[in-house]
Amino acid sequence: MTVIDEVLEANEIYARTHELRPLTPRPARKLAILTCMDTRLSIRTMGLKTGDAHIIRNAGGIVTDDSLRSLLVSHYLLETQEFMVINHTDCGLMHATEQELRTRIQNRAGTAAVAPAFFYAFQNIEENVQHQLQKLRTHPWIPREVAVRGFVYDVVSGRLREIKAF
Ligand SMILES: [Zn+2]
User: What is the pTM of this model?
Assistant: First the structure.
């Protein structure tokens, strides 16, 4: 049995009660979080439940064209009022440069290919968070009244640390 088969089996059991059915598409706490796809990040560490917030995830927790699109939909269509950007210690994108990632993947795949324009590798986590904040705060479609705050999640201590903008 593959993991996907196991997931389907678990879903069959979940659907018998489906306790999340009453939720609406609007986040109950009007919060959107942009963060990394890392397995160690969880809404549990922030006292949040399913239905409380939008969780937008990609490798690194990076403001890209697509995560920006999601944040705009979150605010304009689904009424979120606060944005959190969360990067984390020991992120996979901190362990290699842009070029090393490109070369590594190409060597493993054994072929050149149309690659993503950027992997958004970074070395300094504080600067990386600040850079994401800057991209959001300077965007003309993100209104001033939307709170935009940045954080580093420490995977060892389990704590969030706020990073001030430039
Ligand atoms: Zn990460």
Answer: 0.95
